[in-house]
Amino acid sequence: MKIVKHSGDIVEFSPDKLRSSLMKSGASASVIDDIMKRIQNSIYEGISTKKIYKMAFALLKKKANSHAARYNLREAIRLLGPAGFFFEKYIERLFASEGHKTLTNLTLFGKCISHEVDVVIKKNDVVAMVECKFHMGREAVSDVKVPMYILSRFNDLKERKHPIFTEKDMVSKCWIVTNNRFTTDAIDFAKCTGLNLLSWDYPHNDNLKTKNDTNGLYPITCLTTLTLAEKDRLLNLDIIVVRELAYSSELLEKIGLSPIRIKKVLRETSELCRNI
Known about the structure:
- The protein is an alpha/beta fold.
- The chain contains 13 helices and 10 strands.
- Helix 1 packs antiparallel against helix 2 and helix 2 runs antiparallel to helix 3 (49-63).
């Protein structure tokens, strides 16, 4: 059976890919089997992957909000837009969870000019700059021009000492992070020039998806028990990931939720954070 991807490409429906994505939601095998059966009985020739995703999300939500929240991860990261400011904060949280010291939105003076840097990280005395490339469109990619441009900025900055974590830090590494994907040329160029790339699916075993699963960094935007407006209010209060809400539950009252809804949100939060 042929289905239509977000890009408009027509591909063969793959039950294995659907099952694999459902497994990452944390749902049990019996729940996944039931959802697979329901979806396979409902799809038709030419159906879009977006409609299949919506069906899977709705069926997961009926079983447990937390299953739907995990399944919604990529869309939740996209909802950190549209400007990308909250995506930068999310990436800062990701590196902090891996033991890095972090700072955001710095202006550093290079050998030639000044540069605004999204995130600066430090671990084991190694300081790195992190540039975030956020895309609202699901099919948008970061091509080779992105690492070429950022390499020139990195080369300018690494020539000088900077007052960041100490008075004389040297920026010796550079990361480029995107919520979507890098083109093959972008990856090849980064490998050749020593730049570090991180995207939704790259590197293969240590990408945004796998890091989130390992560190439990579910963005607040994945919660199914909050409206978009409520999520925006929490983001503006600097609540970026779900586990921060678990320790700041009084903020739910501050943004206007009723006691009954607060219980529902905290239940979903608890389920998501259970293994953190």
